[in-house]
Structure formats: C-alpha cells, structure tokens
Design brief:
The complex is a heterodimer of chains A (about 375) and B (about 375). Chain A contains 11 helices and 9 strands. Chain A is α+β, with helices and mostly antiparallel strands and about 375 residues long. Chain B is α+β, with helices and mostly antiparallel strands. In chain B, a hairpin with a 5-residue loop joins strand 6 and strand 7. The chains are: A alpha+beta (about 375), B alpha+beta (about 375).
C-alpha cells in the first residue's frame, strides 16, 4: 500500500491520463447533479416548507395547487377528523412584480398562508410580504414596495426567508387576503371567494409515524367529500415534471459513473500491464498478491479523490461564471454522494486488474 | 491490417473496455440529444404549430404563455394597430381531464387546452387526421397521446365541471408543456374555464394571435405592437418558441453537458492509444528496423481507432433503440437518423484527432534505436 502511494508521489505523470479523464467525468457528474438539485430546490421550496405533514387538495385537481380549491366547509370538515391537530389554508398566484429602480420585472409566486411555514413567522399584515432570499439577486430589498401583477398591487417587503421558491419563481409570503386580491387581479378566471384556499396543510398528532399518517389521510378523504390527501413529500413529487426530472437525471448520472468505472478499469489495466515486471520483482522479494493489489486499489482511490477535488473547484468556478442563467445549485450532500460514488466506482474499476496481478509469476523477475 | 486485428484479438478485454466506455459516452450524447429535441418539441410545439405569424403576450408575463392574460381593452388596442390584418384571441389553460386508454378505466390526466377563434389567426396547422373543431365540445388532440385515451372519436371530460370534449381530429408535434394538448374553439375554452371555477369573474385570452398586413414583416409588426400598446409584448412565432421561459436554459445546460461528453470521448480514446503506443514503442521500432514502413504502422493504429469507435457507436445505437422502446417518461423520443449520423461522424473525427499524438509518435520512431538504445534491445 505504501509502495502504491510512493509510486504516485514519484511518478504522478503515469496516472495523469486516468486523472484527467476522471476530472472531466466528475465535472460532468457534478454539473448534472447541480442542475438536478437547482431545478428540484427552486421548484419545491414552498411545499417543502409547509408546516403540516399532510396536504389536502380537491380530488379533481390531480394534486395541482393551481387547479385545486378547498371550500370553507371542506376545511372545517378536515379540521374535525381524528388525529388532525391543526389546519391552515395555502394558495399560490404566479405573477410578475416590478422592482423599484429595475427595468426588468421579477417572476414571483405570491403565496397566502395561515399556518407559518418552516422559517417564517405568522402571516404579515395585509399588503406586506416576506420574500424569498433569491429575490435579492433581482434587486429586492427589505422596506421596498413592489408593484405586483398586471394591476400593480403594492406589496411591501418586510423580511427575507431562505429556500421557499415555487416553480422557479421567487416566493412572496403574504396574508391570505393579499394573495386572494393578487390572484383575482391577475387571473379573473381563477378568482376565489373569501375562506376558499387552493390547498390545506394538515398537522397531525403523529407527525413521525408513516402508518398513522396514512390512516389520518384516508380518514380525511373518507370524511370530507371531494378531497384528496397525501403526505407533503408526495405533494412535492406531484409538482409538474419533478418525478420525470429526478428519474432522467439520475439515470444520466448513473451512466456517467459507469463510464468513470470503465475508464478507470481501462487505464489501470494498461498501467498494470506496464508494471508487470516491477510487480514480479515485488513478488520475488516476498510481497503477496494482496499487498500488490492493495497498492493498485489505493492508487485508484487517490487518483479518483484528487480528480474529484479538482472537479469541485472547476464546477464552482463555472457556477460563478454562469450566474443566474442556469439553476445550478451545489449542495454538500451532492458533493459527498458524488465523491463516494466516484471513489467506489474507481476502486471497482481498478479491481479488474486483480486477475493479472495474481497471475504475475515472481520467476519472471529473473527472466 | 493483420497486425491491428491480431492485437485486438490478443487483448480483447482492453479493447472491449475501451469500446464499452466509448459506447456509453456516445449513448449519453445521443440520448441527451434525443431528450433535448423531445423536450423542446414538447414544450413549445403548440406555439410553432399555429398559423399566426405574431403572438402578443401580456407584458407582465415575460414571454410565458401560462402567465399571460390580456384584458379586453388591450385586445381592442392590438386590433387597432395599423398593419394588423387579422387578430384572434388565443386562450391557454391546464385542466385535469378524465381519459380512458383502450381497455382501461378512465384516469386523471393533465392536459393543456388552447382555445382559438375559427377563421382568425391562431388555429392549429399540423392536422394529420380528422378535422378542425368547429362547434362546442369538440377538440383536436395530439397523435402522440392517442394511447392515453385521446384517440379520434374518443370523448374526454374535464374533472372540474365535467365538460365533455369529443376528439374530432389529431395533430402532430403540437404539444405544449410536455403534456397532452387539446385545441378547442374559444367559446369551448371559456366554458371549460367557467366550469372549472364557478367563481370566475371573467375569462380573458392568454394571447392575441396576429397576422400582419401585406407588405409588413412579422418582426416589424411585433415591434409596432410592443411600442404602441401599453401592457403588451409582441413576438414573432420563432421568437415565441426560442424565447419561451426555460428553453434557453435547457439548451444551454444540454450544450455544456454534450460538450463535456464530446471532450471526454476524445480524451479517453487519445490517452488510451497514447499509452498503448508508448508501451509498444520497442516492438514498433523493431518492426520499422526490419522494413515496415511508417505508413503501415499508422494505418494499423487508425484501423484500431476506427474499430473501437465503430463498436462503440454500434453499442450506443443498440442502447438508444432500447431506451426509446422503454419510453421517455412522457416524452415522445424519436431517433433522428440525421442527428445520429452527424454525431457519429463527429465522434469518428474527434477520435482520430485524439489519436494524432499517438500517430505522431509512431511517425517519429527511429529504426536506428534498435541498435543504439539499450531500452530497445540495442547495445547502447
């Protein structure tokens, strides 16, 4: 193992080809992962922040918050179901907002709420909003008054909140009446009367028990006509394109990692061939096949790790260069999972040289 | 090319691994091109497949059809612009439909509905079967969604309000937002909107579809409408497609990913043959010394590169055909032979370019080294 590391230090150029290929493959993997995370986080923040473990929609909306509507009567019915501890209405309006001193309007999601989502206080007074931090890059500041929707309704920003965007639009969290006013002014065909919401977030007495949650959800759907209740996680996955996005990107990342494994296998097979004589000498002086093989694996792991570190730097530089043009988000979990996947794949790829290492005859060292 | 073939036969695993890696990378490139084409067609096909040369959005919508609403006074103002030959209202909304695939019970399906005014701009153009809807409760569906219960003669129903729609015709490549897309008359669209929300106070069109007067270009008319009508943004049909939200970002993301994949292919092939050539330097020098011309050795190298790339492309195509048969998660994935041919050609060229260093190395082999260099068996 020690010899493997020493060889890496003395002859780094020998591993340059494998490292260069792995750097690019790792950049590709991180870029794909960053895009997937950016798309997912930017679309789902508002639902992930909901305080309830369950969400109720109208049963004819196919879990679309925009098309769903829950009447005050349905809402009271939900609140009375056994196991439900609190309910809160929530509604969304996707509009544009004019930001002071900016020529380009910002795309915003005005969200009316009753129960405070994670990271938010109770609803602000009418005409005020907590804005998602992403809107800062569009020039939004605390204290500013935004002109929202085609009727330019004034909404004052009173604070910021992280990671609550909806369908790639910056969230403006408002009192229900403010949201209802924006919705009616922007989309007369989607006007909702007072007390009616698009969805209900439901808190239960058993937030961490999936079986109990399923029972409460079924009870709500049985007791209240015209509604469908799912876990908040399922509501997130029901957002348009989220499931398809996840499966497509995950498949592409999987194939990319497979390529990484094959590339490592290829280059280490060549390197092993090149070093057959050297390995024969090692064996002749008493090294076992396991020791020689361990050295090869350590080299693959170090090469993969180094390539990963370089690729992280490159991807961060690229992300800084790209700016807001692409929804590229690099989260720690993605970095860790990519590093682990790359190292494991590299080790497995290098293991393909095991047969050749075992077959090396120590006698070959003397001709 | 006896030498090239013999070497491949003797080192099957090595060459199989390289062909496998190249095959997977080419597959990644081809699959992502397929995905990109399907996505763009599915996102904006409807905008491209209607007959108006200019589409007018609400200025607030930022070129997003789903976010666009035009109040009656704006529609009137657009109609009054000098150079507008004809203008039709175009409504767009997403509705939950109940559709029954053959032999299956009806299921909820999200469908995008476009409402157009017959006889005015904004009507669908790519009709492959049946007729344009003319009356209430008639719809034109996409042939891509026939299997989902949107076949000719089928009746689908909106979940909210229960409005029935009978499919009287089929279009192709006319979908929107990667969902089943229906074209109905504007009164039907209004009826769907009102049925979905009885509290609706009014139904405004999403867009106004405009045809320019003779002698006026679409670009000129779009500029005129944008500057003269407050709260309106006019785009040519091509702009509406290419500048739709997300289209540029999707294209840019895929360009970066595809570019990286092309570089990886070139690099892997280049490095592989470089290492191989270095390892064989002694044998190749010996061959040169006993009379093998450089051209012969280079041809062997090129044959091996082409064999590896050929096997890789064959593997990629097999995987691609398998993927399209498996479905594209709701996207119609159709292999375009021209794209496959261009990509394969580019891979071959890049592979040969990546092997240039190895070729140069072969050309620079000096037969005299056999007798002068100890590492090659000479006396030193």
């Amino acid at each position: 193992m020690n010899l493997g590391l020493k060889e890496l230090r003395r002859r780094p150029g020998r591993f340059g080809a494998a490292a260069a290929a792995l750097v690019l493959i790792s950049v590709l993997t991180l870029f794909l992962g960053g895009l997937l995370d950016g798309l997912y986080l930017g679309s789902t923040g508002a639902l992930r922040a909901q305080p309830g473990e369950l969400m109720t929609f109208s049963d004819n909306s196919k879990l679309s918050v925009i098309r769903s509507r829950i009447t005050p009567e349905q809402r009271s019915g939900i609140a009375k179901v056994d196991g439900v501890t609190a309910v809160g209405g929530v509604g969304f309006a996707l509009v544009a907002a004019t930001v002071p001193e900016r020529s380009e309007p910002a795309s915003v999601a005005v969200i009316g709420y009753e129960l405070a989502p994670k990271g938010l206080p109770a609803p602000p007074v009418a005409g005020e909003a907590f804005a998602d931090q992403s809107l800062e890059s569009k020039g939004v500041r605390v204290g500013q008054v935004l002109a929202v929707g085609p009727r330019k309704l004034p909404i004052k920003v009173v604070g910021f909140v992280p990671d609550t965007n909806f369908l790639q639009q910056g969230a403006l969290w408002t009192a229900p009446d403010t949201w209802r006013e924006v919705l009616a002014s922007a989309r007369p065909d989607q006007t909702l009367p007072p007390g009616t919401f698009q969805a209900i977030t439901v808190q239960t007495a058993t937030p961490n028990d999936p079986v109990a949650l399923a029972t409460v959800a079924a009870s709500i759907d049985r007791s209240v006509a015209g509604v469908r209740t799912v876990t908040t996680e399922d509501a997130v996955l029901a957002l348009p394109g989220i499931k398809e996005q996840n499966s497509t990107f995950t498949a592409i990342i999987g194939v990319t990692l497979l390529v990484a494994g094959i590339v490592v296998a290829l280059f280490f097979a060549l390197l092993t061939l090149e070093r057959t004589g050297m390995f024969a000498v090692f064996k002749a002086v008493g090294a076992s096949s396991v020791q020689v093989f361990a050295g090869v694996i350590v080299q693959a792991v170090v090469v993969a790790l180094s390539a990963f570190v370089v690729s992280v730097v490159l991807v961060f530089l690229a992300a800084a260069g790209i700016g807001d043009a692409l929804p590229l988000t690099l989260v720690p979990q993605r970095l860790v999972s990519t590093a682990v996947a790359l190292i494991v794949t590299a080790a497995l790829g290098a293991a393909i040289s095991l047969r050749r290492v075992v077959r090396i005859d120590p006698a070959a060292a003397i001709g | 090319m006896l030498l090239a073939n013999r070497e491949i036969r003797r080192a099957r695993l090595r060459f199989a691994l390289l062909s496998g890696a190249v095959g997977l990378l080419v597959y990644l490139i081809l699959f992502q091109q397929l995905l990109l084409g399907g996505l763009l067609q599915g996102f904006t096909g409807a905008l491209d497949a209607q007959d108006a040369k200019v589409l007018v959005y609400g200025a607030e919508a930022r070129k997003n059809v789903e976010g666009s609403v035009l109040p009656p006074e704006t529609v009137q103002a657009i109609r009054g612009v000098d150079g507008v030959a004809a203008a039709g209202q175009l409504g767009q909304g997403t509705f939950t439909m109940l559709a029954a695939a053959a032999g299956k019970p009806a299921e909820q399906v999200d469908a995008s509905v476009f409402g157009f005014e017959p006889g005015l701009p904004g009507a669908p153009t790519r009709i492959v079967q049946g007729v344009l809807p003319a009356g209430l409760n008639e719809a034109l569906a996409s042939k891509e969604d026939v299997a989902k219960g949107f076949g000719l003669g089928d009746t689908v129903r909106t979940e909210a309000g229960g409005v029935p729609l009978r499919i009287v015709g089929l279009t192709e490549n006319s979908r929107f937002s990667v969902a089943p897309t229906l074209w109905v008359t504007y009164p039907t669209y209004e009826a769907l909107r009102r049925a979905a929300n009885p509290n609706a106070t009014a139904v405004f069109p999403s867009l106004v579809a405009v045809q320019p007067a003779e002698g006026l270009t679409a670009t000129a008319l779009a500029a005129k409408i944008s500057s003269q009508v407050n709260g309106a943004q006019a785009l040519t049909r091509a702009q509406a497609v290419s500048e739709a939200p997300g289209v540029a970002a999707v294209q840019q993301s895929f360009s970066i990913i595809l570019g990286l994949a092309f570089v990886v292919v070139t690099l892997v092939i280049g490095f592989f043959f470089l290492i191989l050539t270095s390892q064989k330097a002694a044998s190749l020098t010996l061959l040169r010394a006993i009379g093998a011309p450089s051209g012969y050795l280079v041809r062997n190298l090129v044959v091996q590169v082409l064999a590896v790339v050929g096997a890789g492309i064959a593997l990629a195509l097999a995987l691609l055909v398998g993927s399209t048969r498996g479905g594209g998660g709701g996207l119609p994935l159709t292999i375009n032979p021209a794209t496959v041919a261009v990509t394969s050609g580019a891979i071959v060229v890049l592979a040969l370019a990546g092997s240039m260093v190895s070729i140069r190395r072969v050309l620079r082999l000096d037969p005299h080294d056999v007798v002068s260099r100890q590492s090659l068996g000479g006396l030193g």
